[in-house]
Design a protein that fits this description.
Mean pLDDT: 78
Low-confidence stretches: 105-122
Number of strands: 4
Largest sheet: 2 strands, parallel
Structural class: alpha+beta
Strand order of the largest sheet: 1-4
Shape: globular
Number of helices: 3
């Protein structure tokens, strides 16, 4: 199913600025669940599997992450209320690739935007 390509609505990260500071990891063995991350593929900006793996493998003991929707990969056709399901499909494909690579487990929460009554079957 085709997905919508959206322009990234925020300023892009500046790698030079981000590289100016490196902090010591105080408790490298402390298990951490990152409660909030995004994955996206917008024109001019991407943050995908290799990006998150670089971040979670940067020295902290990240044992899980929670995906929060950010509007990437929406379907471009079909009922309007079902278009956000494309983001779940997009993230599921990334999670499946992570599984194939044998990487760290990710607790990917799927988002379903409901615009109809609770009785509507999705």
């Amino acid at each position: 199913m085709p997905v919508e390509a959206r322009a990234y609505p925020r300023p892009l990260p500046n790698p030079e600025w981000l590289g100016k500071l490196s902090e010591e990891i105080i408790e490298p063995d402390l298990p951490i669940v990152d409660p909030h991350h995004h994955l996206w593929d917008h024109p001019g900006s991407r943050y995908l599997l290799d990006d998150i793996l670089a971040d979670v493998n940067s020295g902290h003991n990240i044992v899980a992450t929670v995906f929060i929707q950010c509007g990437s990969g929406y379907r471009t056709s079909g009922p309007e209320e079902m278009r956000p399901i494309g983001e779940s499909e997009f993230v599921r494909a990334i999670a499946e690739e992570a599984d194939r690579r044998g990487g760290k487990d990710q607790d990917l929460r799927r988002h379903r935007q409901l615009r109809r009554s609770a009785a509507t079957e999705c």
